Amino acid sequence: MSFEQINSFGNLRHLITLEGLHKSHVELIIERARRYLTAVGEPPPRADTLRGQTVANLFFEASTRTRASFEIAAKRLSADVLNLDVNMSSRAKGESIIDTIFTLEAMQVDIFVVRDAGPGIPEMIARQVAPHVCVLNAGESDISHPTQGLLDLMTIMLHKGDPGKLTVAIVGDIRHSRVARSAHRALSTCGVGELRLTGPAELLPDDHEFAGAVRATDLAEGIAGADVVMALRLQKERFVQLSEIPDPQEYFRRYGLTEDRLGVAKADAIVMHPGPMNRGVEIESAVADGPRSVIREQVTNGLAIRMAVLELVHVHVRRARGERR
Ligand code: ASP
Questions:
Q1: Separation of 319 CA from ligand 1 center, angstroms?
Q2: pLDDT tier at 2 (50, 70, 90 boundaries)?
Q3: Ligand 1 atom showing the smallest separation from residue 179 Cα
Q4: Which stretches of the chain are DSSP H helices?
């Protein structure tokens, strides 16, 4: 893509998409994130890296974990954090998004974290903000969710090492999934061995998408011998017609991950899900809470990834503001 996310010093400025991001940048973010990993129950890592900088979380679409994750990440790095309440937002009063951004810029917000159901909003904002300001995409339509792609790749690498040797199977509503698109991008950038997409034909992506991936409509075929199995939510909010949404029981019968069906995957395969999970639809509880599940680790790793991304872009803010440290 032509839009530049890296500044003239080679530092990350915006994170709108993993498209076009070099392997070295992906590896750098993951390496930094590893430093922020501590086990649940241990004191969380804190730093004063972002002291004096202001992060605004603008979520124009529902979110629990991503919003909480960005908020905690920014606070652990000592930023001032503003969470804009969507219902109270001026957008509901008809102000354009960009006017909201300019208003917040006038209050010296340095980093915008943006989620929107529409396509193109994070990039549109990034093109118009002041030179020192950074924009991070926290979920854009069905197109992109870069920090999710990074946390998924990190989780896979922490458990399984080099993705080049792995078979990764994504199962479910891939057509409507920004998680799957960002996972594909992250895995392709780092050279995945084999990526398999499995789901009902109508929920598989168009043929021109997901270059290099193998497709299956049969679950056993899709996950046979896989090292990683990632289930996705049926994203009901993105179906054009309600009548297109699969019947949950029928869907579970064909595509739900159960201990039994996972028998064809590798014996040490890990199971992932970006959340929120529908137990009994995409996955049974015995799997979600079982020994193969790394679902909660994904959440922990997500926080570390967001700290790493904030840490990297804060360098741009400082430099562009002419600060020395
Ligand atoms: N939380 C993820 C997302 O924002 C996955 C989902 O909603 O199903 O895309």
A1: 34
A2: low
A3: 9
A4: 23-35, 65-76, 97-105, 121-128, 146-160, 178-189, 219-223, 248-255, 285-288, 295-320
